[in-house]
Amino acid sequence: MNYATFSDTATDGLLAQLNWQPLFEDHGFPLAIMGLFVVFSALMLVRIFIGTLPRIVAALDHFFPDQQHAPQSKATTDEIPDEILAVIAAVVAETVREPHRIVSTQDLSPEDLS
Based on the domain organization, do 1 and 46 belong to the same domain? Predict the structure, then answer.
């Protein structure tokens, strides 16, 4: 038997019927292969776009610098809230698992992220 039938036992109604016969008729296989090709092509385009997005943002950051991300003086960068320092220390302690000491921290630029 080359098909499967699914039914709802409460109402005894037919929910779906899977049948392989249309795949073997007319243009079934070429249509299925074309559908797979379209889906995988779309997924590859999304993957490429997501992979190049940090580079695009870094390039746009050079042309349109944001006033909020202007370089700060050394005095303001040393004032990291205690909550953030506690989170950084917890992550380092979980990752390193050896005696350690955090000497300094720095923000990552868009170039570092790409």
Answer: yes
**pTM, 2 dp:** 0.39
State whether 12 and 31 are in the same domain.
Answer: yes
Tell me the per-residue pLDDT of 59-112, one tens digit each, with 9 for 90 and over: 888 888 766 655 555 445 557 788 888 888 888 888 888 888 877 777 778 888
Q: How many domains does the chain have?
A: 2
The answer on 53 and 87 residing in a single domain is no
CB neighbour burial string for 47-71, b if at least 16 within 10 angstroms, e if fewer: eeeeeeeeeeeeeeeeeeeeeeeee
* Coil/strand/helix, residue 22: helix
Ramachandran category for residue 103: left, alpha or beta (phi over 0 → left; psi -120 to 50 → alpha): alpha
State the Cα–Cα distance between residues 25 and 72, nearest whole angstrom: 68
Residue 15 placed within a domain: yes
Please state, as a whole number, how many other Cβ atoms lie within 10 Å of the Cβ of residue 112. 10
57 lies in some domain: yes
